[in-house]
Design brief:
Strand content of chain A: 25-35%
Number of strands of chain A: 4
Strand order of the largest sheet of chain A: 1-2-3-4
Helix content of chain A: 25-40%
Largest interface: A-B, 22 and 22 residues
Number of helices of chain A: 4
Oligomer: homohexamer
Structural class of chain A: alpha+beta
C-alpha cells in the first residue's frame, strides 16, 4: 500500500456564524471570524489517495488525473468564491474548516473511486497554524 | 546601517473592481479577483526598518515595539476585515496588493519615525506566488 | 472523526548529558548537543486533537481554546527558558526531543480532556530536519 | 511508542517511460515526464523510525546514526545521479516516486533493524505538490 | 515605484562541465555536478518587475500577464527539459545557475518592456540553499 | 553583476542583558530575552556575494568554497555554542541579532575577498518573524 498526496491551493472568503444568533452572540462564540462583512484565507489542500502502484506505470494513480478531479470538483467551486454564499456542497453548513474538509471529501470520493484508487485523507490548512484532517467515516 | 524586518500575518476579504464598470467589464479586467461576493487571502507582511544599532541595547529598534506599531496601525484595521468596506486608509482605492502596500507604508511611517528609526520597505505577499514591495517615494 | 492541529513555537536552551558521565563521555554519546554551556532551538510544536465537529459550532474544539491550553501548560513553561534547569515537568529527565514530546503530552492531556476533546498527537520539530511525534501510550 | 523523523535531500535526474513503448506512447502515458533527454528534481526524503526512547540517552535512535545510514544506503546512490541509469536498486523499475519510495524502504530497513529500531515510513516529495509515502507491506 | 514579484517553478536536468576537459578535470572543477549522466533540480524562479501602479487597475502590471510571459519565454523552454541539450538560449553556455539567470533575464526583458513595465530582478533558487540573483547590466 | 547566496543554519544559546543592570532592569529593557539561564534559536544565515561569473566555470564563486569559508569562520564558532560565553568575535558585545550579523560580516569578508569575490549582504533570521540584514559600512 502506497499513499500519494497532491497539494493544491484556493483563496476564498467566508465567515463563521449562526443565522439565528445576534451579532453579539456570534462574536462571543466565533470571535473575529464572525465578521459580518467577511474575511478570507489562502487555503492549502492536501488530498491523499492510497493503493498499489500499477505495474505498467509505477503509479498508484496519475497525479495529473488526481489534480484534474480536484480542480473539477473542488477548486472550480471554491477558488475566489464566498464559501457561505456560493458553494453548493456547503449550503446550510457552518463554514468551519472541519465541515469544509468533510465536504471536500464527499466531493472527491466518487471520482477517485471511479479512477480505481481509494481516498485516504483530506487535509486542509486554513492558516499555517490551523490545520484540519479528515480520514472519512 | 542595519536592516531589521518583522514578519506579520493578517487574513482579509477583498475584491478588485471599478464601481463604474459592469460585472462583465470587471471580469474582463480583473478576472476572478472581481467576484462580487468577495474572496480573501492570508496576507504575509514584512516591514523593514533601517538604522544604526543603539549601543545600549544592540537594537536598531526593539522588534516588540515595531510589532506593536504594526498591530495598532495595520493589523487591527485589516485582520479579519473586508479591505474594500472596512479599512479607512483604503477608502476610494482599488484594493490591489500594490495600493495596499502603499497604504500600509503611510500608516506605519509616522510611528516608526517617532520611534527614532527609518522605514525602508513594506513587502506584502498576497499568495506565495504574488508579492509586492514598496520602498517609499 | 476529524483531526485538528494547532501549530505553536517556543525558543529554549538545553543540553543533552548525563550528570554521572564525564564531559568526554557526554561528548562521545551526545556529540555537540552535550556542550556544557548550552545551545538552543526554535522548537515548532504541532498539537493534534480528534473528535466529532459539534453541530452548533462546526468545531471539534475551538482552536483559540486549544491555543490557550498550550500557552498555559507548555509555552509559558518552555519559551525563553532553559529546559534542563527551569521546566518542572522535565526535572530529572534527559532533555531529548523524545522526552520533551512525552512531557508536553502529559501536560496537555488533562486540559484537552476537560474541554471534551481527545489528544491524538504531539509533534515537535527541534530543527527542520529532526522531528519527533508521540501518540500516547 | 515514539516516532522520530530525519529529513534529507538529494538531486537526481530521471525519466518515466517504458522501453517497449514508442516516444509517442510514452508521451501519452507519462506526459512531459517521459522526455527522452531527462529532467530532474530536488527530492525531499523523510524517514520515520519508531521505538521506545532508551533510558540512558532519551533517544529512540541517535539521529546522527540514522542520518549516516540514509547517507550510506540512499544518498550516496541517488544524489547527483541518474535514477534510471545509475541506481542499482532501481534497475528494471519504472522510476516513479512510488517505486523509488519502496526501493528506499528496502535499502534502509536492514540497517535500521540492526540499530535496534523499526522503520515506520518513507516519505518522498518529488515536488512540493507531489508527495508519496510508503509504510511497508 | 513599486516592485511586484511572480514566483514560478520548473524541473530540469543539467550538468556542469567543459567539453574540452576530461571527466577527471570536470570532476575536480565542478564536483558531483559534473556527473556525465546528468542530475536535476526543482528550480524556483522569482521575477521582479517595477513601475508605478496604474490608476485604472491599481496594478504595476497584471500578474497573469507576467505569468504568461514567463510561461511562454522561459517555462515552456526549460520545464522537464535538459538545460544543456534542449534550451536554445543556453546553447554554448555553461549551465550554471548564474548563466541561467542571465539567460532568463534576456528572454524576459523584451516582453516585459512591451507590456510597459521594467524588469528589475531575476532570482533563481537551484536548491533552497543555493540562490542566484541578477539585476541586469 | 550577479549575486549568489548560500543559506546555512546554526543552533546557539544566548541572552540579551547588560552586566551593569540588575535582573529587573534587564527584564524591563530586553524582556524574556534577558532570562539569566539562557534560551536559544535555530539561526538561519544567508550570505550573499557579488561579482561577474567567471568564463571558465560560469560561477561568481564556487558555492562549495563559500560554504567552506562560512563553516570555518562562522559555523564552527557558533553552532551548538553559547554566543555570550564562547564566541570570540562577540566578546564584550550585546548578543543582539544586529551585532551578530555585523560580527559575522567581519569574520567572512577577508576570506571572501581572498577568493576574489565581494561580500554583499549578511542576512540572519533569529526566528521566522525576526530578521536582520547587514550590507557593510
Amino acid at each position: 500500500m502506497v499513499y500519494i498526496t497532491r497539494k493544491e491551493h484556493f483563496n476564498s472568503a467566508h465567515r463563521l456564524f449562526r443565522p439565528e444568533y445576534s451579532d453579539e452572540e456570534n462574536l462571543r462564540v466565533f470571535g473575529k471570524c464572525s465578521n459580518p462583512l467577511w474575511h478570507g484565507h489562502n487555503y492549502l489542500l492536501m488530498v491523499t489517495v492510497k493503493g498499489e502502484p500499477k505495474p505498467e506505470t509505477g503509479f498508484v494513480m496519475d497525479l495529473k488525473k488526481l489534480s484534474q478531479i480536484i480542480a473539477d470538483k473542488v477548486l472550480d467551486k471554491l477558488d475566489h468564491k464566498n464559501i457561505n454564499l456560493e458553494v453548493d456542497f456547503m449550503k446550510g453548513e457552518l463554514a468551519s474548516t472541519e465541515n469544509l474538509a468533510i465536504g471536500i471529501w464527499n466531493e472527491l470520493e466518487p471520482g477517485i473511486n471511479a479512477a480505481g484508487a481509494t481516498l485516504h485523507s483530506v487535509r486542509l490548512e486554513e492558516t499555517e497554524n490551523n490545520i484540519v484532517e479528515y480520514l472519512g467515516k
